[in-house]
Amino acid sequence: MQDNFKNKAQDWDSGDIRVNGAKAIANAIENEIELTQDMEILDFGVGTGLLGFSIAPKVKQVYGVDTSAKMLEKLEEKNSPQLAIKAYHQDIIQEPLEQQFDGLISSMTLHHVQDLDAFFHTIYKNIKQNGFIAIADLESEDGSFHSDNTGVHHFGFEEEALKEIVQKNGFKDIKIQNINTINKEHRNFGVFLLTAKK
C-alpha cells in the first residue's frame, strides 16, 4: 500500500485552507446531524485528526481510519487522555472493520477512493441501523485543485451521479449541499457535504 501522504504529513496542519476547511465541515455536520454523547463515530481518512478532534468532544468516541502511517503518527502526537481518537492503519475496503458505528464522517478523502461502489457497500455494513454518513468533498472540478494528482481518482463529484451510487448501496434520505468554497489563486472550488441514513 503506497503512502502518498508521507511527505505531506509533517506540515499538514499548518495550512489555513485545511484547518479552516475542517472547521467548516465540522460545523456543517453539527448543523445536519444531532451528535450525542453515546455515539461512536468513524472518521474515514482521519489524517492528522483535523475533523475528528472537532467532533470528538460532542460524542462518546471517535475512531479514525487511514492508509497513511505518517498522517496517523501526527495524529498520535495530538492525542491526549482528555481527547483521544482511536486510530487504525488500514484500507477498510480491502480489510473491512468488524465494528459497527453510529455514524461515519469524512473530510476530503472520497476523491482518493478508486471504487466508490465498493466503498459505500463496505461502509453500509459498518453503520448501525438508523445511523448516518456525513461525507465532505469537492464539487466537480477540472483537476487543478491538487498540484499533484497522484492518488486522486476523481476530480470532484457530480451531485446526481454520486447520489445514485449512495442510494444503490442502501442509504436513504440523501442530501448534498454546498458548505464551503476554497479560494485558490487560479480559481475557486466548491465543497459539499453529503448526508444520508441507513
Mean pLDDT: 91
Shape: globular
Oligomer: single chain
Output the CATH homologous superfamily.
Vaccinia Virus protein VP39
Structure description:
This protein has 198 residues and is α/β, with parallel strands linked by helices. 26% of the residues lie in helices and 29% in strands. The protein has helices at 16-32, 52-55, 69-78, 116-126, 159-168, and strands at residues 40-44, 61-66, 85-89, 101-107, 127-138, 172-183, 188-197. The protein has a 7-stranded mixed beta sheet. The longest helix is centred in the N-terminal third of the chain and has 17 residues, at 16-32. It is globular and about 40 Å long. 37% of the residues are buried. The model has no long low-confidence stretch (mean pLDDT 91).
List the defining traits of the structure above:
198 residues, alpha/beta, Rossmann fold, 7 strands, globular
Task: Write a brief caption for the model.
The protein is of the alpha/beta class. It has five helices and seven strands, in the order H-E-H-E-H-E-E-H-E-H-E-E.
